[in-house]
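Can anyone check this?
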Amino acid sequence: MTTSAMASEIGESANVVANIVRSRPAARDVTQRIRIGAVPLCVVCGRGSSGHAGVFLRYLVETRLRLPVSASAPSVITAFRTPLMLRDALFIVISQSGRSPDLVAATKSARASGARTVAIVNAASSPVADEAEFVIPIEAGEEHSVAATKTVIGSMAACVGLVAELAGDRALRSALDRLPERLDRALALDWTEIADNLTKASAVFVAARGLALGSAREIALKLSEILRLPSIGLSAAELQHGPRAALSSRTPVVMMRLMDETAATVDALVNELREQKFALHLCGGPHGSLAWLTEDDPATDPITMLIPAYRMIEQTARACGFDPDRPPCLRKITETF
């Protein structure tokens, strides 16, 4: 069977992150020129998969830098034409192509208002990068599959590198150093046990807490995008509220559990759902059902978990007769306003 571009690009992720590890000077330049202690607020801007990397970044910034984070709504600039007051704020835009007009406009407006602007982009020569004060390149190379994989992993790794430098966090730097090897090992993890439930599902819930929430939302997006299956990525805490009423025998739950302060509450929810006989697939912890590595740093494990999830989705798509590289009605670059 011919290998898809998506499969090939998943396999390139470890090399992408290895390059990011070697390009630490870009993040260090930001650190040397921004006094993080004087920053009142961080604003994160991105859409789609880049927005999921932004959710991950939010938890990193708030837990490691103790700096409040707001998610930017670019339509405030493009549709409502209302510039925000962001003097001295740290504005971080995440984009693969760096070409979406709304992200360009939001970055330009933030810089004009006095924010320190950082662009984490795959295309370092792009309109978004041109509008930012600082650029942290992902340099993952071109992606031929519509579904972004290696650029998402690269974006999240770049977020780790930036926060590690801003916080002066040696443990986080070391975790990033170990990440390429873990991503490479994760290619051997087999999550195809989920596939049987997916083929009979009416919808899928992907849940996690904290640093893994961005990955949960990303996996849910790929399930919708590649398998054409309605999916929602949400906090495990939110799954204990209204969405829980929608669980049934046709709505499998994929849960991601990190070895951190959120572990106990995730474990409790897993036990409840298993007692109620819902189809539940758990990655992480002593009672996990999905293949996993030995736990590492909870700031980088959510990135590693994307590898087996992406591979499972790609393999399931081909088994169902879908082209994982060309989902219907989608283009590689989506230009929103």
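Reply from J.R.: I decoded it. The radius of gyration is 19 Å.
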